[in-house]
Write a structure and sequence with these properties.
The chain is of the alpha+beta class and 333 residues long. The protein contains 11 helices and 14 strands. Helix 2 packs across helix 3 and helix 5 packs across helix 11.
Length: 333
């Protein structure tokens, strides 16, 4: 394409800027197409049209991943500002309509329900006094399905949405999977991996996200454990583990929610490569303004004040892996 100084931004569309940013961030037209929900040819054509409008090329297509040209680097700064401004405008406009909501339906993963749900509901009642608040708890996969089918408006879940383009996510917490056994069952100083393989392993059902995650991790690590029974509730898993002097793999949140007396158990870091679970708040994109972001911030505050001190006191050996998250990484203490 011949370079020109005759720039024509009158015909540049938001869609073409969105596709430009998607290619810039992924370094690939194919990956950008998957992100924006368009065909590869449609993305390529939009980029070509954009370059024609501004009179210069914005990507060096001769290298992989695709790189920005100097003109593309300049456009990148402005494109991000434009798209961010549009997103903020949408959120501000939606905010005007929120006080008129008749009902807001929120779902929270079982393991967090008792700890944060009452405060989140109280916050919503104070901010939107005319809005009915319906709160429910359940498994992450069920909550996400209800969000997809518009039976819930916001969920706090341990499973990321299948279609991230249609939803917004706000990260809250990362917690490690841990090995749990009855107090004193495993001898200090002996090989922990050998000991866990020598007792019954009480597992979560693989119909559950947590059960599938653990089973897949054990297969990757090439570990086979004697697992005579499985359950779909932490209370049942932990009760059976105590009753048969076995062990299980779970998370600190599941342990706090499912064990009546944590002094009855020992909690260890996994004697194999680490495995973590991230808890996030998810809502449909561009529907609730800044409300999801505010609830995520409040959720972090509640986790920091109520759960992190308990985890540090009860499970000091694994508490370093129990950390607050933001969309930009770990939350600063």
């Amino acid at each position: 394409m011949t370079k020109s100084t005759a720039f024509n931004f009158n015909s540049v569309s938001l869609r073409s800027l969105e596709m430009f940013v998607a290619v810039e961030e992924t370094g690939s037209i194919t990956k950008a197409a998957a992100r924006v929900g368009a065909s590869r040819s449609a993305v390529s054509q939009q980029i070509t049209n954009l370059e024609m409008m501004i009179g210069t090329v914005v990507f060096d297509r001769e290298v992989r991943p695709i790189n920005l040209t100097p003109a593309g680097s300049v456009l990148r700064r402005h494109a991000h500002r434009i798209l961010e401004a549009i997103s903020e405008a949408r959120a501000d406009l939606m905010e005007l309509s929120l006080p008129g909501l008749n009902e807001l339906r929120i779902g929270i993963i079982d393991d967090l329900d008792a700890s944060i749900t009452p405060d989140l509901v109280q916050h919503l009642r104070e901010r939107y006094p005319r809005c009915g608040i319906a709160a429910t708890s359940g498994r992450s996969d069920y909550l996400n399905d209800n969000l997809i089918h518009r039976e819930l408006d916001i969920v706090i879940s341990g499973v990321e949405p299948d279609d991230p383009l249609s939803y917004e996510e706000h990260m809250i917490l990362r917690e490690p999977y841990v090995l749990v056994a009855p107090r004193g069952l495993f001898e200090p100083g002996r090989n922990l991996r050998q000991q866990m393989c020598s007792v019954p392993f009480i597992r979560y059902s693989q119909t559950m996200p947590i059960g599938r995650a653990i089973a897949q991790h054990l297969r990757r690590c090439r570990i086979e454990l004697r697992a005579p029974v499985s359950f779909d509730a932490s209370r049942s898993v932990l009760a059976m583990m105590l009753g048969c002097n076995g062990c299980t793999i779970t998370t600190p949140l599941c342990l706090l929610d499912g064990c009546q007396d944590v002094s009855q158990v020992d909690c260890f870091s996994l004697p194999l490569p680490g495995l973590n679970r991230s808890i996030r708040l998810v809502s449909r994109r561009d529907e609730l303004g800044y409300l999801p972001q505010r609830l995520a911030e409040l959720s972090r505050e509640l986790v920091a004040s109520r759960l992190i001190p308990v985890v540090r006191q009860c499970f000091p050996a694994v508490s370093d892996g129990f950390v607050l998250l933001t969309n930009y990484g770990e939350h600063a203490d």
